[in-house]
Amino acid sequence: MSQQLTLELSDEVYADLQQKASAVGLSIAEWIVAMVSDQSGSVGELLHSVAQQEEARQRFRNHAGAISLGYATGIDNESIDADLARAYASEYEG
């Protein structure tokens, strides 16, 4: 059996709840239910874990495009071989 509860929240509180719920990929209602029904800490640990995963994803995404070689790269073997040959040649030059 379940019951329905209607809440009236200020715009500030709603925005804060919306931000917290979005950070862990839940709707506001789901986030509130998870917080209220924190059963033996398991829901809180799950939400904490999801939040940590999202933070890790954001840190990983910040590295995208951080290094530029100055030219376009591809997956063709000829350009890879040429890059390796240049790299090896420069190691042995004096």
Strand proportion? under 5%
Shape estimate: rod-shaped
In N-to-C order, the SSE pattern is HHHH
Spatial extent as radius of gyration: 25 Å
Percentage of residues assigned to helices: 55-70%
Q: State the low-pLDDT regions, or none.
A: none
The biggest sheet, with number of strands, parallel, antiparallel or mixed sense and barrel status, is:
none
Average the pLDDT over all residues and give the rounded result.
79
Using DSSP, what is the number of strands? 0
Helix/strand/pairing category = mainly alpha
Tell me the number of helical segments per DSSP (H or I, 4 or more residues long): 4
Distance between the termini: 80 Å
How would you portray this structure in words?
- This protein is mostly helical.
- It has a domain of 60 residues.
- Helix content is 62%, strand content 0%.
- The chain is built from four helices and no strands.
- The longest helix has 20 residues.
- The radius of gyration is 25 Å and the shape is rod-shaped.
- 1% of the residues are buried.
